[in-house]
Amino acid sequence: DAKTTQPTSMDCAEGRAANLPCNHSTISGNEYVYWYRQIHSQGPQYIIHGLKNNETNEMASLIITEDRKSSTLILPHATLRDTAVYYCIVRRTRGGATNKLIFGTGTLLAVQP
Amino acid sequence: NAGVTQTPKFQVLKTGQSMTLQCAQDMNHEYMSWYRQDPGMGLRLIHYSVGAGITDQGEVPNGYNVSRSTTEDFPLRLLSAAPSQTSVYFCASSQSGGRGGEQYFGPGTRLTVT
User: Fold this and answer.
1) DSSP B68
2) Which residue of A67, B29, B54, B80 has the fewest C-beta atoms within 10 A of its own C-beta?
3) A99, burial (CB in 10 Å: exposed 0-12, middle 13-18, buried 19+)
4) What distance in Å separates the CA atoms of residue B23 and residue B95, rounded to the nearest whole number?
5) d(Cα A8, Cα B106) in Å, to the nearest integer?
6) CB A72 within 8 A of CB A14
7) DSSP line for A14-53
């Protein structure tokens, strides 16, 4: 599975968009980009995933560059409850144990009032 | 649905003791896994299972045993606890492999080994 690189921490003002970057320059063609978050002391929570196209759901948007070497998670209107560690993960979609998730250290997003 | 449940929430063990962390899911998911999370670090995969009767090792399997006799349950056994196993343990489940399929995590078990 490809390695990802994320900033250690970011700040965002409440009500503004939070843009969290992720580099995955060694991603291969059969790997999806997944985003999870972990609010303090809780289990991780799935946010969104994508392969090539941009994706949007009720929680966030995922923008993947055309060469697929980086992506950005966008929380359109951050609230204090969005303060969490955000993990960008790439995962194979074929072959054995394709559900394995390899977590890095993620980005600590602090939403400021 | 209760989702993924874990028991106990907290546990203190003495070095050398054994115990089993319980994990259950009611979503009929084929895939289940165990992670540990040490302070300030991301989650690391201990063991996983792609279905009843099938288990395999993750990144950090030493000191832990698992079995999967039913689809619903995936217990994690510590045979002889060591202080290095002090951590928060998370269980997760999902539909079987391939595209899509987010993983659902339990609330965690906080284990201290003295």
Assistant:
1) -
2) A67
3) buried
4) 16
5) 25
6) no
7) TTS-EEEEEE-TT--TTEEEEEEEE-TTS--EEEEEESSS
Please, which residues bridge with residue A12 across strands?
Answer: A111
Q: Hey, what are B35's tokens?
A: 């992670």
Q: What angle (nearest 5°) sits at the alpha carbon of residue B42, between those of residues B40 and B47?
A: 130
The minimal CB distance from A97 to the residues B41, B97, B101 is found for B97
Question: Which helix (DSSP H) or strand (DSSP E) does residue B37 occupy?
Answer: strand B31-37
Q: How far, in Å, are B2, B3, B84 from residue A89 at the CA level?
A: 26, 23, 26
Largest Cα–Cα distance in chain B? Answer: 43
CB of A100 within 8 Å of a chain B CB? The answer is: yes
Task: Show residues of chain A in contact with B101, CB under 8 Å.
Answer: 99
Residue-wise pLDDT tens digits, B39-86: 878 889 999 998 899 999 998 999 999 999 999 999 999 999 999 999
Residue of chain A nearest B87, judged by CA positions:
A41
Average pLDDT, stretch A93-107? 70
Confidence of residue A104 (pLDDT cuts 50, 70, 90): confident
Residue B101 CA to chain centroid, in angstroms?
19
User: What value does the CA radius of gyration of chain A take, rounded to a whole number of Å?
Assistant: 14
